[in-house]
Task: structure prediction
Amino acid sequence: MQVALYLKHFPASGSPIVGGTATGVNGLATGFAQNGVEAVVLCEGAERRSTTSAEGFRIECFRNRRRYQSFGVSPELCDFAAKTLKPSGVCQLHGIFHPACFALGRELRRRGVPYVVNPHDPYDRWMFSRNPHLKWPYWYLFERRHLRDALAVQLLDQRHEEPLRRLGIGTPAFEVPNGVHAAQAVAEPPPIASARDTAEGPSLIFLGRLDAYNKGLDTLIEAFANFTRSPGPQATLTLRGPDWGDRARLARRVDELGLMNRVAILDPDYRRSSVEILTDHDLLCLPSRFEGFGLVALEAMLAGRVLLVSERAGVARHVTASGCGVAVPPTVTGVAQGLAALFGRRGQWTDMGRLGRRYVLERLQWNHVAGRALETYARLLN
Result:
């Protein structure tokens, strides 16, 4: 079997892998290669490039200077995909509400090549609540047809099937969660706050793009303010990641709440891995209003950290099943109560971190995740 993975912005020049979608594509492609499958990542950029990654999969970048949100896909890419994937291959299209994915899917279907849609986010009401005047017309004109014509929809969480069915999509759907590489794990994570001989309070972190609505960062700041008003440890909170337009507004709210000495908003640090950054802190907060999965949560588990995640994130059931944290409603009250519950168990944090680390290493390594995906592709293609 041959598998192609299309992500328009995947870095083909050896640049660091940045962002959850690109990290997920890189992980899946690595897992496919480890399972002995010919895997190729298709992307577009300023020039034609062909390389082989250190993980063993090919990266084929095709010249396309059109703007990112464009229906224009490189004709050379379409020709390459059709030639490579016939007669026994499948193409994954990664992205949600993306014109290039629709255009490539339409071209693949015309040439008799099956494709699988991997949207990375759920099609729920929270997704449609942001820019509904753009999303609903696009849904009826393009996205709905894109999903209906697919061989299948690959979901990060099986719960995401329900909103698809409510929207009238009958295409087969199956779950393939995100994963980790064992090589990402540090040999022995440094101790967390409950085991430190220090007067400093616990250190909380959000790691990801500074997108207040999607990631629930406005909710997190309000909940942290409410939580810290009650007597207890002098916790600190760090928000670290690239600015998606909300950093200044979040900083103003921190100032209004008088939290300048307890909340820091920092630029991303691409010199260090996420796992390394997370080991500088004790507890990861991911209170997203909607979240396909939450790959950073797996990285925090790999780092032996404690987690508070939104119950709407695909990773939520893995967090609760492993015993390394709590899943809460993404509301101010829900997050504040979750923090209180975790702080009430501070003496267990070290053991909770070990449970999460063991869980991801035993169940969610990329080679295992990709192997299960390949079994599903084989059934669908037959």
Q: What stands out?
A: The mean pLDDT is 92. Residues 2-179+365-381 form a domain with the Rossmann fold fold (CATH 3.40.50.2000). The first helix runs from residue 20 to 34. The CA atoms of residues 346 and 375 lie 41 Å apart.
